[in-house]
Amino acid sequence: VSAEIRVGLEPPYTVHVGPGRLALAGELARERSGAVVTDGRVAALHGARLAALGDWPWVQVPRGEQAKTLAQVGALLEELDAAGLDRRSLLVTFGGGSVSDLGGLVASLYMRGIDVLHCPTTLLAQVDAAVGGKTGVDVGPAKNLAGTFHQPIAVVADVGVLATLAEPELRSGLGEVLKSALLEQPPRGAPPLFEVLERDAERLLGRDAEALETVVERCVRQKAAVVAGDERDQGARRGLNLGHTFAHAIEAASGFSVPHGVAVAAGLALALEASRRAGRLEDPGLPERVGRLLARLSLPTSLADLRAAAGPLDPVRLEQALGHDKKRAGGELRFVLPRRVGCVALDVAVEPALVRALLA
Ligand SMILES: NC(=O)c1ccc[n+]([C@@H]2O[C@H](COP(=O)([O-])OP(=O)(O)OC[C@H]3O[C@@H](n4cnc5c(N)ncnc54)[C@H](O)[C@@H]3O)[C@@H](O)[C@H]2O)c1
Ligand SMILES: [Zn+2]
């Protein structure tokens, strides 16, 4: 089985989901010049799956968030220039969200913009980062401060590569999957993704290929639908930030040692609690139901839970990091708050005292 999901932007593009799909990358790149940007682990584990691009230059960037710096942008631009890429060349990203965020940004800058094809290799990148066209790198403590919108020509999500994910990366992806499940309007006749997760939590943690494929497909459908209606974050796309205001603060306060999706999981728990205390929750049983699922997925069920695993996460640093988000948002901190499965409240101003209490 495999799925082709269309992202209805101008021009539209396809996200190919399924086992063995990386063979398609060779076809999409046929008769073009280009380069592959990847990291050392992905190249070593899965490079053979991209053998069709074996005679292109392969550029390796540092693993993880360390790839997302302005210094790496400069280095990669120089490598592409040295490799002789021109404005008709194609940049193929092959790795997790760090690689697609950096590679997407560089593709948007090189000679004022060249095509990019994303081949995401982590669960998080397949369900989220590689779809939707947001690129970016961090500047100092400010996550994704420098970025662009640059849509790929296609996305090839080969679920076969997920078998080698280490447990922390798998769990991180599942945090982002849970976010999608809280936002999803299920396709007609299908059970909500949230119920699929409740059914399959242990299979997913066990890297069951079929369960993972279902989840990737459903999350991509969810994100594609939202992005198609709001490419540039002016309306509904802001719902995708559910849990992320808190998550970005957690990542910054931890010096980026807490993986993104793990921070998102804690952020979802905080957003649910904020929603309850601010009187926005419609389904009073939701926080407990989400908490049970988070626990089964080995994800933090609260900030206290995350602190027990990841260290103190100083409330003052968390608040400072939120303050940073506030400046970027134009002076007011606005939250996405869950109301029930499939329904969030956008742009809610939460009392500073309540935010402080949640972070304590
Ligand atoms: N642009 C967006 O819309 C968007 C959305 C969500 C997240 N992000 C960004 O994505 C980044 C996180 O990406 P990520 O979680 O994919 O991790 P990552 O790219 O940082 O990679 C994490 C680790 O996983 C390893 N890895 C990758 N694929 C593997 C595989 N198949 N088997 C074994 N190991 C593998 C990598 O080598 C690396 O060490 C964050 O910077 C986040 O901000 C962007
Ligand atoms: Zn995210």
- Taken in chain order, the helices and strands follow as EEHEHEHEHEHEEEHHHHHHHHEEH
> What is the residue-averaged pLDDT?
95
Main sheet, how many strands, which sense, barrel?
7 strands, mixed
Number of strands: 11
What's the end-to-end separation, in Å?
47 Å
Number of helices: 14
Radius of gyration: 19 Å
Share in helix:
40-55%
Ligand types: nicotinamide-adenine-dinucleotide, zinc ion
Q: In terms of structural class, how would the helical and strand content be classed?
A: alpha/beta
Strand order of the largest sheet: 1-2-9-6-5-3-4
Q: Which word captures the global form? A: globular
Indicate the low-confidence ranges by residue numbers. none
Strand content: 15-25%
Question: What are the defining features of this structure?
Answer:
single chain; two-stranded antiparallel ribbon; 46% helix; 360 residues; seven-stranded mixed β-sheet; binds nicotinamide-adenine-dinucleotide; binds zinc ion; alpha/beta
Write up what this structure looks like.
The structure is a single chain. α6 packs parallel to α10 and α9 packs across α13 (315-328). The longest helix has 21 residues, at 209-229. The chain is 46% helix and 17% strand. Strands 1-2-9-6-5-3-4 form a seven-stranded mixed β-sheet. The chain has helices at residues 23-28, 40-46, 70-82, 97-109, 123-129, 167-183, 193-205, 209-229, 244-253, 260-277, 286-296, 303-310, 315-328, 352-359; strands at 3-7, 13-18, 34-39, 58-61, 90-95, 115-120, 137-139, 142-146, 154-158, 334-340, 343-349. It has 14 helices and eleven strands. Zinc ion is lined by residues 128, 176, 244, 260, 264.
